[in-house]
Design goal:
By secondary structure, the chain is an alpha/beta fold. It folds into two domains: about 1-310, Rossmann fold; about 320-410. The protein has helices spanning about 15-25, 25-30, 45-50, 60-65, 70-90, 105, 110-125, 140-150, 160, 175-185, 200-205, 225-235, 270-275, 280-290, 320-350, 355-370, 380-415, 420-425; strands spanning about 1-5, 35, 95-100, 130-135, 190-195. A five-stranded parallel beta sheet has the order 2-3-1-4-5. Mean pLDDT is about 90; it is low at about 410-425. InterPro entries: P-loop_NTPase. It comes from Algicella marina.
Length: about 425
């Protein structure tokens, strides 16, 4: 059985691909592909944590509750055993490919020793191993990472890009490929040009020879942010976490929903100047690896305007973004209060307090109508109006039932045959 080891890089569609694989597990198995099940799902993060130096903790250690070198040793032992069992199960099921996908294998394993540990962990289980590594222009990667950084509360500025270094482990793709070639053999490492293969799912469908047409569709994640959303995040200047480690909810302001007009981008002049730092290493990559050209690692300059938006973050007009945020907060608040009114109406209905039901429904209706003026919540507002309509129908139905019960005794008194009337006739 072959191991297909997908190591990223980050910002090349890895998350979307991993979610797609996880949602199509059974279908993939029907075509002989087994996605690793015991090293964390959907992103197989545990493998990178296993190979990391125990005295160099990173966020993956927190994810798996690793606090000490002893914890790490136990984690490696337990996960290695679980991996062995999972591989055995895949082989017993007649699988042809065992798939591991994790971009942290690229971003967190920056020494030869760490990558060698990955080889030590997996080589014992497979007859054949292929390492697949997507590469995109370093500057494009940096800008995509800036959007991710803004999402988690990092301040974004031109200074970050001015400080990019070609020799740093994150952007030095030459050393990255060398580390994996040293551990697995250059003939077993496949660099892939992201510029020519932007749909990672489709690339692997071809790579794996998948023929079925009933796979669940891919859900694209981590869409680009409008630059004004990033500017607003910068201005908030609030920490992502409180001192106790809990997430700070005050940083949440519908960043993903602010209407997209312009992405984060550098001016073309600044971008070309920064890209020059990477050209010597990129030339070496193209010289060694036949699947990569220098053009593959050169940004599309048409995507970099004469005036960049990153340079404008400190002085851009935040009016449109602020208007959206205020309207969204008010609309959500109105719908939340309307939902409370609806719950009170349901309680009143159970208690047969029909006047109270009508009053609460009227209050909810006002709030929902006000919220519905904001287009992004209109669909949710319509659903709540349907709830109100059902409550009104229930009130009308129960009032009709009550009226029927009142009328029935009168009918009996007027036309029924009661004992007293019979006795009266006898008199």
């Amino acid at each position: 059985m072959k191991l297909l080891l997908h190591i990223g890089t980050e910002k090349t569609g890895t998350t979307s691909f991993q979610r797609w694989v996880d949602s199509n597990n059974e279908t993939l198995r029907s075509e002989g592909v087994w996605h690793a099940q015991t090293i964390a799902l959907p992103d197989n993060r545990a493998l990178a944590v296993m190979a990391r130096d125990p005295d160099k903790p990173e966020d993956g250690f927190n994810q798996f509750n690793i606090r000490t070198p002893e914890d790490h040793a136990n984690f490696v032992r337990n996960r290695s055993g679980a991996l062995k069992k999972d591989v055995a199960e895949a082989k017993a099921a007649g699988m042809r490919v065992y798939l591991i996908s994790n971009e942290h294998l690229q971003s967190r394993l920056f020494s030869q020793q760490m990558v060698d540990r990955v080889a030590e962990i997996v080589k014992r289980h497979f007859d054949e191993i292929e390492v697949v590594c997507f590469l995109r222009p370093q500057l494009d990667t940096a800008i995509s990472l800036a959007s991710t950084g803004a999402r988690v509360g990092n301040r974004i500025s031109i200074k970050q890009f001015e400080g990019l270094q070609a020799q740093g482990h994150y952007y030095n793709f030459k050393d990255l490929l060398d580390r994996w070639a040293n551990a697995f053999g250059a003939e077993n490492v496949t660099p892939v040009a992201f510029k020519r293969n932007k749909n990672t799912v489709e690339f692997f469908r071809r790579k794996l020879g998948l023929e079925r047409t009933d796979y669940q569709p891919e859900v694209r994640l981590n869409a680009a942010l409008d630059y004004r959303a990033v500017a607003l995040s910068n201005q908030l200047n609030l920490p992502r976490f409180f001192d106790d480690g809990s997430l700070n909810p005050n940083r949440q302001f519908f960043m993903e929903e602010i209407p997209f007009e312009k992405p984060l981008t550098l001016s073309r002049h600044a971008a070309q100047r920064i890209h020059e730092r990477f050209q010597p290493l990129n030339a070496e990559i193209a010289a060694r690896w036949a699947s990569i050209t220098e053009e593959d690692l050169t940004p599309d300059w048409e995507r970099y305007p004469e005036q960049g938006t990153i340079e404008q973050l400190d002085e851009c007009d935040l009016g449109p973004a602020l208007r959206y945020v205020v309207q969204k907060f008010n609309a959500d608040l109105a719908l939340a209060r309307a939902q409370t009114d609806i719950q009170k109406a349901r309680l009143a209905l159970r208690n047969r307090e029909f006047k109270a039901v009508k009053w609460q429904v009227a209050q909810a209706d006002k709030k929902i109508q006000a919220a519905a003026a904001f287009e992004p919540v209109k669909e949710r507002a319509c659903e709540m109006l349907q709830e109100i309509s059902k409550l009104q129908e229930s009130v009308a139905e129960r009032q009709a039932q009550r009226q029927n019960r009142k009328e029935k005794p009168e009918a009996k008194a007027g036309g029924g045959f009661s004992l007293s009337r019979l006795l009266g006739k006898e008199k």
